Amino acid sequence: MDLSVVIPVKNEAGNIAPLVAEIVAALDGCAEYEIIYVDDGSDDSTEAEIRRLQATLPQLRLLRHAKSCGQSAAIRSGVKAAHGRWVATLDGDGQNDPADIPALWQLARAARETPALMIAGHRARRRDSWSKRQASRIANAVRRRLLHDDTPDTGCGLKLFPRALFLDLPYFDHMHRFLPALVLRDGGTVRSVPVNHRPRQRGTSKYGVLDRLGVGIADLVGVMWLRRRCIRPLIVEEKSPEDGAPSPVRETSIQPAL
Questions:
Q1: Mean pLDDT for the chain?
Q2: How far is CA 40 from each of CA 15, 75, 141, rounded to the nearest angstrom?
Q3: Which residues pair with 193 in a beta bridge?
Q4: DSSP code, position 176
């Protein structure tokens, strides 16, 4: 399996069928893929709508949380269950455009295996309310200054990364907001790519402006701590016999600058 598309949702019944149709249109013939919906404790007809579509789409899978655990937990559940070597994430509200995935997929296929690469969508033209845009602008500026992740938009739900890379990252609630910084901490690279962003057509947002800012400050402090405490071993390989006498395997440590 080339690619797993992971979509966390809660009470998004009206957005399921339109988004699935767009994903299929974008990826058919482009990659061998699966679509994994993670229902994070919905109490509407989200589950029923996904099961209805499964009757005709064998590549559509459903995972369910017994109770809501949050977006980061839903993404992690989906990535752990994924069969693909690469994972693309999308928000379930329809604001991310699946038509952008093939371009990101081509970049991923052309990338070197090491260092591991995360491709992050950048919503250059946000289709949200003024208050959300302002809150995101402030949060992104503060985060970039403190974490030095050089990513203009970490809140975009559209991202593409190797499954193994994600599973190596430290997990905590709301980690999805800090994925670029965590990838850099782990020795990977991050590339931001402009992507389409659309206004929400159905359903209601699960986050308020104060919710985003409140948890963001506390988590930012935690990520700063994680970054400062990171030690990455640098393994020196043993020489082969034809290169001379074998040398012992030595291990040194490197720590990112504060």
A1: 87
A2: 15, 10, 30
A3: 121
A4: G
How far the first Cα of the chain sits from its last, in Å, is 39
- pLDDT tens for 133-185 read 767 777 777 777 788 788 888 889 999 999 999 999 999 999 999 999 999 99
Structure-block tokens of residue 89: 């994430």
- Helices 101-110, 13-27: crossing angle, 10 deg rounding: 50
How far apart are the C-alpha atoms of 208 and 206, rounded to whole Å?
Answer: 7
Give residue 23's Cα distance to chain centre.
16
Q: Cα separations (Å) of 222 from 146, 165, 178, 256?
A: 12, 20, 10, 16
Run of H or E residues at 35: strand 33-40
Strand partners, 244: none
Whole-Å CA distances, 190 to 152, 154, 162, 173, 179: 11, 11, 12, 21, 9
Q: Residue 52 contacts by C-beta under 8 Å, 6 or more apart in sequence?
A: none
Task: With CA atoms as reference, report the closest residue to 100 among 151, 174, 156.
Answer: 156
Which of helix, strand or coil describes residue 183? helix
Buried b (16+ CB within 10 A) or exposed e, 82-114: bebebbbbbbbbbbbbbebbeebbeebeebeee
